[in-house]
Each structure stands twice: as C-alpha cells, then as structure tokens.
Please model this.
Amino acid sequence: MLQRIAIKGFKSLVNVELELPPLVVLAGPNASGKSNVLDAIQMLARSGTQRTLADALGPPIRGFPAEAFTLPSGGLPALMAQPTASFSIEADLAVGHAGNGNAVERIRYRVGIDIDPDEGVLSLADEYLTRLTKDRQPKDTPRIEVAGSELILRRSGGGGRPPHEQLGANHTLLSDARLSGSSYPLFDVVRDELRLWRTYYLDPQTAMRAEAPPREVADIGVRGEHVAPFLHGLKTRSPQAFAAVARSLKSIVPAIDALDVSLDTKRGTLDLQITQDGTTFSSRVVSEGTLRVLALCAIAVTATSGLFAFEEPENGVQPQRLDRIAELLASAAQRGRGQIVVTTHSPGFVAAILSRAQDQRDVGLFSVSRDGRSTVIKQMKDFGLWHETAVAELLNEPDDYDKVSALVRRGWLDL
Model:
C-alpha cells in the first residue's frame, strides 16, 4: 500500500505531499492536474521495474519525457533552453509479507531524475531505499543512498565496504534484477509491490472492442484491451471468480441477464457477449458505459493486492449507477483487496463513495485545483458536509462544470 507520496517538479506538481488511505478520491475540474498524480504514481512504480529511465517515462505515461518536468514561466521553449531540469518522487510503502501472517514491512523509496532537455538524455540524480519504523523513521542503515556524487549500495547483513556507483546512470539500482536474493531481499520486496500497481486509462470506444485471441494475461490491460482474454481465463480456470464478475455487472446494470466469453474456433478469436433484456450483444455493439462498468467489475472483484488507479470512472455511466460503482470500489478497498485511487469531477460520485465509507479513515477525499501553473491538492476533513440535503440540490446542476462551481460556492472545494 502507498501510504505517503511526496512529489517535486513533476508536471504541474511543483511540491505536493499526500497521506493516502486505502481509498483515495481526487476531485476537481478538468485540467486541474488530477491525472498528473496518477502519472506520478505510475512513474514511481515504473522507475523501479523498467530497464531504463526512458522506458519508465514512456507510454502509457502521457507526453514526451521533457514534458514530465515542471515547466518554467516561459513554457516548453524555456525548459528546452535550460541546461537541466529535475523531479523527485518519494513514497512510504506498507508491504505485507506472504506467508508471514499480518507482518507489514514499512519502506521508504525515493527517486530523483534529471534531464538534459536539449538532448533528451535522462539520468539518475538521487535514489534512496530504507526500512522504516512504525512512526516512519529510518529503521536501519539505508540500502541505497547518495554520498557526494556516488550511490552507496548496501547488502543485507553488511560486511565489507559497500559498493559505490556513480550517479548519472540511465536506470535505477532498484530496477537492476541482478540485485536480488538473500543479499538484497528488500529490493525484491519493493519490486514485487511496484509490479502490482496499475493505472488504467480505459478505452471502451476502441481497445475494449478489438478482436483478441486467447492469451495468458495478468489483468485487463492499461486501456482494457485484454478484457476478453482476461475474462476467458477466469471462466476456464476460476469459474467462481468469473461468476462474481458477472454478478457485480448485473448488480450495477440490472437489465443485464448474462455475461459470456466464447472461443470462435474458425477465427481463433474470443467473443465477449452480454445478454441484456433477453437479447445477446457482442462487445462490438455494447455501449461504452457498459464496457467501462465491466472493466471496473473485472478489476475490483479479482483484485487481491496492489494499487489500482482509474481516471473518472463515472464517464459514460448513467448517473443512477454511480451509487453501485461507488459501492463496488469502496467494498474492494475496505476488504483490503488492494488500494483504490480514482479521479473524478462528479460530486454525485464523491457523495456516493463517502456514504459507503464504514470508517472515514479508510477514505481520503482531496480537492484538486490550479494556482497558475501549479496544482494545489488539499485533503478535506469534514465529510459531514457531503451528507447534507445540499448534495441533492447539487446533483440537479445541469452539468458537471456547474456542479463543481456549486461546490466552490458552498466552500466545499477550495479551487
């Protein structure tokens, strides 16, 4: 679980620090910087698992590598004229150990990256890895830390002079798979955790409708492009899980009678079919909202651990279904089956999420706004406001822009 993240110089996140519970809701208007938080989380995970920094900053992270760095007042041309630019991302993690009861390892990892804008060369400027105490103080000697112009790399158990590496490499030490096993057990723990983090940019218009053959996949894919093979795998290897996805889908869209995935042996492709009001439709003609809901169900029902981030799950979904989607995501987070991070500009979705929070400590509601070129993120502490009758009035605003404006007028969001 990602308990804390501190971001400096990444896109519009000039200096942001957040404490994150199991369910995180980032609420604000378009272009406020909500998506940049998801990109920062994804960048942190990829920096520790991808072969190079260029790979880490590649798709699905949006934009060119230089655009990942906070732009000066002159915009991109001014950035390109600079000799260097930098950003850093630091995270406090709480990672459970398989087969070790409820034991939790608390870990801090930080990565700092420089770029030569003129040449587009990325280099490692900082890296830090250590275990933490319960009150998040360094527990022992860091496994990775900077000393002058070098990185110190320490093995478990110590002994001898630790290896020194020059700063400026095109990869992190954490991403080096050779640093593993009994000498570097903490590296394995962190990498395994980061590999479980997913950020989804669902594309029900194209990616989720494309034909796909059977294949072994770990999840539905960043854009939902693997939803058919993923569900086919569930149906054949874990029918109970497949049935649970179908039940969740029907609970959100009551008109749906059945969900099925079958193999077309002539073409070697999978047919994803949804029966609604007695008529069976293929994924090629099912509504975008239904496909989006199906993707959310597939993720939330089957999640066992890790972090799962979504952009605006309310998009394309009928307003009356927001309550059930909120219940699906809140339930997944409260069961301890993964950390959920969502962005939204829908007050209705926010109200639905909060009404299902059994414990307010399980939910973090953050208002996201812009102050010039910088994103400002503030945690809202008073959830009671969201349960007043004013919420019902708010939902009568003609569109989401007006809803957000109404929030500002009431002082519920400081934009």
Q: What stands out?
A: Residues 134 and 299 are 31 Å apart (CA to CA). The chain has three domains: 20-30+313-415, 50-194, 207-305. The radius of gyration is 22 Å. Residues 50-194 form one domain.
